Amino acid sequence: MTAPDPARDDPAHDDPGRARGPGPEAGAGPTDGVHANTFHGPTAFLVGDHGTQHVQFVYKWKPAYRIEDFPAEARPVSTQVLGKHPSRLLRAAHEVVPFTGRLRDLDELTRWRDDPTPGLGVRLVCGPGGQGKTRLAAHFAGLSRASGWTVWQAAVNEAGADPVATSGLPAAGAGILLVVDYAERWPVPDLRNLFQDRTLRDAGVPVRVLLLARLSGYWWEGLEHWICDNFDVLAAYQPLPALADDPQARAELFRQARDSFAGRLGLDSNEAVGIAPPPDLERDPHGEYAQVLTVHIAALAAVDARLMKETAPAAPARASYYLLVRERAHWGELPLSSTPAAMGRMVLTATLTRPLVRHHGQTALKWIRLADSSEAADILLDDHLSCYPPPYDELAQAVTVLEPLYPDRLGEDFIGLITPAGSGPACTPHPLPKLAVDDWTRDAAEHLLVGPEGPGTAAPWTRNALTVLIETARRWPHVATGQLYPLLKKHPELARHGAGSALVVLADFEDLDTAVLEAIEPHLPTVHRADLDIGAAAIALRLAKHQLAGARDSASRAAIHHRLAARQWLAGFHGEACESAETAVTQWRDAVTDDAAHEPGLARSLNNLGICLSGMGRWDEALARTDQAVEIYERWARRSPEDHEPALAAALSNRGVRLSELGRRREALAATEQAVRIRRQLYDRDAAVHGPDLAQSLNNLGEDLWEARRFGEALKATEQAVEIYRALSESEALDYEPDLARSLANLGSHIADEGRPAEGLSILRDAVALYRRLSEGNPAVHEPELARTLSRLGYHFAQAGRGEEALASEQDAVEILSKLCAVNPAAHEPELAHSLSTLGDHLSDLGRWEKALDAAERAVEMHRGLPGHNPAHEVPLGAALDVVARILRHKGELRGALRAVEETEELYRKRVADVPSVRPWLEAFPARRTELVEAIDRQDRRPDTDR
User: Which of 98, 371, 511, 540 falls between 20 and 30 A from 569, CA-CA?
Assistant: First the structure.
């Protein structure tokens, strides 16, 4: 039998006939884009003439990180440098102020590290910037090393740099502690790749991954579930409380930092004792000194002010400003070609972009309008390098430029202090209005992010710049109201190029201008994007709460819940999506009672509710809701075809999938053919708008036709789907990778079945490789399709006589489906049962009879235990019984084999009208029954001694 049917719904979007939004980020360099039919970016693929030639993937993957030894000692810093750059003393890497306190936090970390459970352990330490996360991790790393643990860190490869290999690492000791800083800023797929890195997987000792992040929320919930599903461990969450949350602790922390800084800067200890803390430190009415770094900044500024015979700053913002003025004074003392004003602008640029390779740095300076040529940019970059050289890295294959101001919190303060407030009535005033600001910064972020070609072109620094700007705006409200909000309202499509974690931060702003969310939400992808799905869901949830508070009627509330359900579904929050979709339908029904004009809205939500219910394994309910949507759209399409045929086609396409899930193949084919007819007409009118929808229905049509044994038509439909997706992927690769993977899986299977096994297997392996990468980004969404495609690949390996490869592929599918069943058994047990049956088949081909029988009998038991009666489960049950029959026949248990054959034949006879693909199998049963009956008769006639 064939592997599970990968026919697919239309995505749960708001308008089934939608036009696509702006394209995704173009990648990270001049080689990115489409060249010679190949898209070069996070994944690149080349599709040839798939009708007669091989379909081939070409991957160009740049490792996003490297694993290296965690520094065992604090980095030294010279007295000469400190005299000019006192802010260097604040960097955690230098450990100038001795670590103190945090005994409870260290005890928690130690218990987690030393847990006897083998394998992987993951813990998130979370707290605001400046809370002391990095210092805590460094101290814990030292304690762990002293206890025999090997300590590593994951370092991000800088934007645009050549790939950097994982460093030569020492042999693991008692275990491995891996520290990952700024975890929330990592793209989710890269972070998941890290957890699966072979260096960790093959270590042979306990591995503990310590994540450090400023926030938890949506990004952490998704990662936590993924870790649990993939590694069968519970990820731990440890919020880091404010160390300086009482007057005595703050005062002691100030004194300790003051004395440490004074010793490093050469201030007499007796004189240092006379430096008093800021007047508000102990009572701290506004909670400004809650973070350790804020207290350290105040202490450093006070010590340096005493050395410079100046008055110590009296507030946190003024302390940051004082240290930044000292930085500016240092620029003026150096033999640079640039003025201090120009160097200040370079520092702001570097803080936003973070390190880049030189040619990207040149481009950044042109975009931000600091240079009009590469030569002019090089002068500025070299001057900046003189002030802020990158740390020496023997692994680096390219020297980077634009080293940011550290610590990050100080860099964000620099942006906040030199950026003027906006001029509108809703703009928050600058906290230090009498201090000089640089008016050039008013448009700097926009120039850097938008570029000369407009916001549709993403740069290597776009994600970092948006993240830093959002983090800065969270602490400096005038940057939010004067810079960030106007920028996102003017160019909302920028959010599409940002990091999902940054969108989560933005959605959590306490005084967020919801007009910003209303502007950017429509520009976020309406298809799966692993790097943005969770952030988009956070945006949608915050926006929905605001909009529902002001909604005055049922129709408005229904539309809000409908959009929220779509976003939650894309992010993999399927239970929440189902609840939101149910609420949307209820609200629409109330609205229709008052005004029948709301029926199309009800149909949209019914259509999406069908998708959600199906994903939860509630197939009968899913079909009922989809049928209701079709009935409404048919009536409205008769009245106004132009307005409602696109939505009708989407509902019909989904009806075909629902019917297929219930085993009603003939009806499924009729619904899919009707959807294709409508979409072909729409495609002829506007290919750009309706191409994705036609391709999706053609993909499903290919499967339905194949089941109907109309092989030539099936292959033609699938080839057309691949062709459309190939064209779409050349400009919007990230949006259409899942669809392309699905159509390639179908195409490979059809080509192999047609008698071209080598070509079909190669295409299927490409589809599996793409699904594996997609699953790393969003397993809840893509792992079911990965398992189906692995099962297909295994089936065709077996058909080609490659039994061991068939077995390995099916074992992978069973492992994935077993994890999915632990979370949602109703949705995934049928597929797991089918996969176990196929696994038994492959094991029997290899002569591993006992294991084969165990797998096949588990499959039969699981099929029989499925709740309710679904005709679609009868053929897979028959297939599992058939595997049992063949194994029992080999073992000589002939009566058991005969019973299994007879039941299988009965099941296939019931289903052959709807599932013609079982006919060849059914035709073989009379001969098999006869053979078994005769064998039993011979066995019964043999003397007992021969048995």
Answer: 511
Alpha carbon distance 719, 54 (integer Å): 12
81 pLDDT band, cuts 50/70/90, is: low
DSSP 587-610: HHHHHHHH-GGGHHHHHHHHHHHH
Structure tokens at 746: 């179908």
Q: Give this prediction's pTM.
A: 0.70
Residue 838's SS3 state is helix
Q: What is the C-alpha to C-alpha distance for residues 791 and 109, in angstroms, rounded to an integer?
A: 41
Give the β-pairing of 176-180 and 150-156. parallel
**Could you tell me which CATH number the domain at 65-239 has?**
3.40.50
The helix or strand, by DSSP H or E, that contains position 783, with its residue range, turns out to be: helix 779-799
Query: Band of the pLDDT at 62, cuts 50, 70, 90?
Result: very low
Comparing CA positions, the residue from 66, 67, 60, 63 lying closest to residue 163 is 63
Half-sphere exposure of 358 (CA within 13 A, CB side): 14
745: tokens are 């899986």
CA dist 7 and 694 (Å) reads: 14
Cα–Cα distances in angstroms (integers) from residue 412 to residues 129, 472, 915, in the given order: 10, 5, 63
Are the C-beta atoms of 880 and 837 separated by less than 8 Å?
yes
429 token code pair = 């005033």
Radius of gyration of the chain from its Cα atoms, rounded to whole angstroms: 32
Which residue in this structure is represented by tokens 């939101």?
Answer: 580
Q: Which residues pair with 239 in a beta bridge?
A: 126
CB atoms within 10 A of CB 861: 12
Q: Residue 187 corresponds to which tokens in the numbers above?
A: 């793209």
And the tokens for 497?
């190029």
Helix (H, G, I), strand (E, B) or coil at 119: coil
Give one word for 553, left, alpha or beta, with left for phi > 0 and alpha for psi -120 to 50: beta
pLDDT band at 103, cuts 50/70/90? confident
- What is the C-alpha to C-alpha distance for residues 847 and 461, in angstroms, rounded to an integer? 56
Beta-ladder partners of 208: 121, 177
| Rounded mean pLDDT, 274-282 | 87
| 824-947: CATH number | 1.25.40.10
Distance CA 86, CA 406 (A): 11
Half-sphere exposure of 801 (CA within 13 A, CB side): 1
Alpha carbon distance 922, 709 (integer Å)? 14
Q: Superfamily assignment of 22-61+683-817 in CATH?
A: Tetratricopeptide repeat domain (1.25.40.10)
Domains 22-61+683-817 and 824-947 share a fold: yes
Alpha-carbon distances, residue 870 vs 613, 647, 664, 705 (angstroms): 15, 28, 10, 21
pLDDT tens digits, 592-647: 999 999 999 999 999 999 999 988 888 899 999 999 999 999 999 999 998 999 99
In the chain, the amino acid numbered 823 is: V
Q: Kindly list the domain boundaries of the chain, sorted by start residue.
A: 22-61+683-817, 65-239, 409-523, 824-947
10, 653 contact by CB (below 8 A): yes
Q: Are 156 and 65 in contact (CB under 8 A)?
A: yes
* SS3 assignment, position 425: coil
Residue 420, pLDDT above cutoff 80: yes
Contact criterion met (CB below 8 Å) for 89 and 96: yes
What contacts 823, CB < 8 A, 6 or more positions away?
Answer: 225, 229
Locus of tokens 């909670």 = 287
Q: At what angle do helices 803-823 and 779-799 cross, to 10 degrees?
A: 150
Instruction: Give the DSSP letter of residue 115.
Output: -
d(CA 481, CA 429): 9
Query: Which residues lie closer than 8 Å to 335 by C-beta, 6 or more apart?
Result: none
Contact between residue 611 and residue 569 where contact means Cβ atoms under 8 Å apart: yes
